[in-house]
Design a protein that fits this description.
mainly alpha
Length: 261
């Protein structure tokens, strides 16, 4: 009986702790959104962070986009060849990148590269008591440190996803047209006639904006709430990647079900 009571107490404590974490995250998100509106009065901070975040993620996203587009062309050609539809290779590559792979893979790469950098930077600022010093000088660290990074990531994510899709299509073109021998006119004309600017590209942009908000909020929140120790910062950096990846994949399922049902 005592073991059962201890088990229920442990379960209740776990649930209470998780609910408290959700409540704290919700309050921080609301505070961060309002601070983001106020941060718009100082656009230079946001522009600097867009440059900072873009530099951290650009190379890995461009290289990954080329190779993923090339793999799509290889696999898509082998599948379409069975049905005599090799000329539809451009449609397959473009829709796969614009609708799904572009926003999702960009978000996962962003979380692993720029997201961890943001968490570590803010966590080290907390460990070095820089955030506390700001509060002592009546400077809100959420508005001065977190909000510009949050807004910058939301702006940078669609740009990075668009670049990913662009170089992915180019990689598919190199493999499909230059290497395999698909007709170049059919490759581009089929793509142009079948990819809709609103239904496909627009929904992809919406996804990347949502994923940018998820990844950036997770990164700055974990850094802001990290324990001011080396171990605490390292654990917060790990949680950023894990939580961002899982939430992005879950959000992608929900958005896809709403957009393309």
């Amino acid at each position: 009986m005592k073991t059962l009571i201890d088990l229920l107490a442990a379960l209740g404590g776990f649930v209470r702790g998780q609910l408290a974490g959700v409540g704290a995250g919700t309050r921080t998100f609301a505070r961060l959104c309002w601070a983001g509106v106020l941060a718009m009065r100082r656009p230079r901070l946001i522009i600097d962070q867009i440059h900072f975040i873009g530099n951290y993620s650009l190379l890995i996203i461009l290289v990954s986009g080329v190779f993923i587009g090339a793999v799509l062309a290889f696999q898509g050609f082998n599948t379409l060849q069975r049905y005599g539809s090799e000329n539809a290779l451009g449609i397959l590559v473009a829709l796969s990148l614009v609708r799904e792979l572009g926003p999702v893979v960009t978000a996962l790469l962003f979380a692993g590269r720029a997201g961890t950098a943001l968490t570590a930077e803010i966590g080290l600022m907390k460990a070095g008591e820089q955030l506390t010093a700001m509060e002592m000088m009546a400077v809100d660290p959420v508005q001065r440190v977190l909000a510009p990074r949050f807004i910058a990531a939301i702006i940078a994510m669609p740009i990075l996803a668009a670049l990913f899709s662009m170089v992915g299509v180019f990689g598919g073109y190199l493999i499909g047209v230059k290497m395999i021998g698909v007709d170049a006119g059919a490759f581009w004309s089929q793509m142009q006639s079948s990819v809709d600017a609103v239904a496909d590209v627009g929904n992809g942009v919406i996804k990347s904006v949502v994923f940018g908000a998820i990844c950036s909020f997770t990164a700055v929140y974990e850094g802001y709430e990290a324990k001011p120790t080396p171990e605490g910062v390292s654990r917060a950096t790990t949680r950023t990647v894990v939580v961002s990846s899982l939430v992005v994949l879950g959000a992608d399922f929900l958005l896809t079900a709403l957009m393309f049902s």
